[in-house]
Amino acid sequence: MTADEKPTVSFGFRTVAEDEKSRLVGEVFTSVARRYDVMNDLMSMGVHRLWKDALIDWLAPSPSTQLLDVAGGTGDIAFRFLERLSGKPGNAVVCDINPEMLAVGRERARERNLSERVTFSCGDAEKLPMPDASFDAYTIAFGIRNVTHIDKALAEAHRVLKPGGHFLCLEFSKVNDALLSNLYDFWSFNAIPLIGQAVTNDRASYQYLVESIRRFPPQQDFADMVTAAGFKQVKWRDMTGGIVAMHSGWKR
Ligand SMILES: C[S@@+](CC[C@H](N)C(=O)[O-])C[C@H]1O[C@@H](n2cnc3c(N)ncnc32)[C@H](O)[C@@H]1O
Questions:
Q1: Domain boundaries, the chain
Q2: Tens digit of pLDDT for each residue in 79-128?
Q3: Ligand 1 atom with least separation from CA of 75
């Protein structure tokens, strides 16, 4: 790169100027926000619910757990967290960069009578509007591949967790079985953009989503990034053959 060239990053399979990515990602989620939840069910055939339940299993929350769910969008993880407390007290904070996704989340919280227990905060995972050492758990589900600088988002996760705090990340990952990989590629690159076109009238956003999944680092590489951010005992668990991986780490 010469001095006058701007740094670049991936946006799906495209390479864009680093300072462009956040706006482009913003356009994707603004466009799909109203149909985001129904599309999740259609694209994953409902399996995203099991992946999210598994994250709550690993978190094993108690009423005293202070949860921050980053890139929390329409609130799925926060709602599951509170439902797992089965009527016991507890609160969650959802932080997302996109006001339209948060607006859908607030409506869903009202429908579930959870408005008093979930705070929706607009903010960037790379520069969280939260003080140091303020949460017991930090979760991020299908969000981290969308941030421009993953290392900065991980550093922020470490900063806002209390010592002893738990980091958990759900993200699409690398499928190792060749047959499953072929089926998954077929579904991703053929069916998903078509479903996106039919349901949201926006094929391009779903093309980005499937491309961004393929650009995300595989399990071990992402674990190395989580470790580099200062987390200890970093491990992961593959789900659905590695279509999704859940990474865990602890702040000491
Ligand atoms: C695929 S959605 C995931 C939503 C939710 N976590 C779920 O699992 O249903 C990705 C979310 O990441 C958010 N996002 C993208 N870049 C972000 C950033 N830099 N900081 C915070 N949120 C971001 C988007 O606005 C979007 O709501």
A1: 24-250
A2: 999 999 988 999 999 999 999 999 999 999 999 999 999 999 999 999 99
A3: 5
Please give the distance, rounded to the nearest whole angstrom, from the Cα atom of residue 1 to the centre of ligand 1. Answer: 30
Query: Is the pTM higher than 0.90?
Result: yes
Confidence of residue 139 (pLDDT cuts 50, 70, 90): very high
Domain covering 24-250, topology: Rossmann fold (3.40.50)
Q: What is the whole-number distance in angstroms between the Cα of residue 234 and the centre of ligand 1? A: 23
pLDDT at 16 over 80: yes
Torsion of CA 81, 128, 97, 100, to 10 degrees: 60
